[in-house]
Structure to design on (342 residues):
């Protein structure tokens, strides 16, 4: 494999999956299942505690009420810690969840790169090192949890053309890394111009991209990408133009996640995307948010109660008000492949 620049990735890289408008919307849950670390601190190989996995029972009970099976995309510290691997492996063997792979390069062997922002995006590592890290992660999951991961999600959304080639070579079926409208240039990939709709990729066989569900709401949502990009200009930061647009109801970029997004925002995003014809919805968050004090989104026990309540209420509304049905990434791959969707 040859190294390719992350900016080579374009929306046309993925061939759209044509889902009929009459189809019921599907909701799937993806949990970035990872170590607890300070998101604001420099990257460290020593931050590998995974105590938040002990709190996963709360999420399992909640999602079971909505007939939802979460997909835990597991990183190396989780897979290599006996207690967390046994807990998640037991859920998977009982058919109560699905398991995928989640690469945090800074805590995943081999440890040969220089730590830093650039190397935190796996697609920047070079094809050989990126391949080695994903291969070892996959092997660790299979050995410790006793399951074969079909889905992959790059930490920090670090997906590029080399990632696609690697996933194909390692027999993955699904990627969950693309986050529409996100731009991490110059140090990471840009997903500007991407939509929250699934697509096929792969040169020798078909793999399915199921992107994060991110989009725009507000009066100016039809020109959302261009307006949001303009308001993000460096010279407008002192006046906080992004915040002004959001508070005025003009434009708000929302991700289908209880981390940093309200139930009302998630509801508004779902309505808008349904009108656009979107029929697959990814509800995503990080496992450390299940334990108070591990992320900025959940500082206290009261925060966690509100966090779980937001998930519960959203799932109830999706299945009720929006007429949705539960799904998993693996289910969608199998369904779309069987239906022969282009």
């Amino acid at each position: 494999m040859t190294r390719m620049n992350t900016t080579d990735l374009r929306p046309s890289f993925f061939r759209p999956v044509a889902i009929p408008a009459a189809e019921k919307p599907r909701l799937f849950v993806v949990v970035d299942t990872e170590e607890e670390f300070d998101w604001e601190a420099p990257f460290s190989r020593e931050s590998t505690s995974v105590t938040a996995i002990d709190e996963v029972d709360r999420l399992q009970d909640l999602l079971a009420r909505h007939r939802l099976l979460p997909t835990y995309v597991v990183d190396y510290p989780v897979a290599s810690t006996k207690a967390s691997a046994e807990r998640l492996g037991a859920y998977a063997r009982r058919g109560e969840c699905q398991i995928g792979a989640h690469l945090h390069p800074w805590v995943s062997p081999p440890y040969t790169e220089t730590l830093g922002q650039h190397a935190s995006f796996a697609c920047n590592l070079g094809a050989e090192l990126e391949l080695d890290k994903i291969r070892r992660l996959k092997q660790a999951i299979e050995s410790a949890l006793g399951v074969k991961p079909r889905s992959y999600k790059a930490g920090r959304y670090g997906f590029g053309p080399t990632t696609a080639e690697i996933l194909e070579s390692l027999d993955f079926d699904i990627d969950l890394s693309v986050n529409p409208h996100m731009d991490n240039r110059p140090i990471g990939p840009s997903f500007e111009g991407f939509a929250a709709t699934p697509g096929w990729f792969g040169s020798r066989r078909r793999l399915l991209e199921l992107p994060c569900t991110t989009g725009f709401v507000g009066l100016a949502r039809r020109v959302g990408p261009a307006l949001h990009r303009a308001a993000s200009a460096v010279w407008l930061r002192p006046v906080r133009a992004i915040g002004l647009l959001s508070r005025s109801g003009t434009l708000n970029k929302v991700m289908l996640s209880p981390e940093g997004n309200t139930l009302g925002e998630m509801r508004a995003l779902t309505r808008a995307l349904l009108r656009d014809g979107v029929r697959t919805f990814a509800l995503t968050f990080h496992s450390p948010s299940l334990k108070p004090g591990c992320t900025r989104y959940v500082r206290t026990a009261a925060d966690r109660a509100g966090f779980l309540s937001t998930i519960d209420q959203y799932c109830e509304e999706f299945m009720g008000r929006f007429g949705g049905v539960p799904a998993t990434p693996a289910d969608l791959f199998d369904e779309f492949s069987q239906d022969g969707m282009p």
DSSP finds ten helices and twelve strands in the chain. The radius of gyration is 19 Å. Residues 1-7 have pLDDT under 50 and may be disordered. Residues 232 and 238 are 11 Å apart (CA to CA).
